[in-house]
Amino acid sequence: MAKLFSWDPWIELESMQEDLFRLIEDVVRSSPFARTSSQVVRYRPVADVIEQEEQFIILVELSGIDQEDISIEVHGKKLIVYGTRAFPVASPSVSFHALEGSYGQFERQFILPVDINTSSIKAVLKSGLLMIFISKVRTIPAHTIISVNVDE
Asked: What is the mean pLDDT of the chain?
């Protein structure tokens, strides 16, 4: 069974950096009511990766994001989900009393195994959940013996 994620220290470091910044921001902030738009935590949607016999399924939680604000690209073995989660109300005359949500641009990267079919990737957005279906390529195991028939 192929692994969907190969260990990438740079992705791990980036994730740790985001977590550290988020922790510092939470400690320094005296009140959730004092939060301004410049202090908004960068949005990083959570994702689940499921492997089935015939395919991989990547689930990304994107509540409040429209289809036109999402793009998916494949570069070699890397699948990247880009998007933007906009403020629900954008006006200079609006004051926020509490702003606990995360907003802004995001990017999630997934390293794909060698044995996937990139031409058959299908993405569906339903009720704030992005479902990406990635078919596996059928390969013949190295130890399989194939008989050859001669057609006369």
From this structure: 76
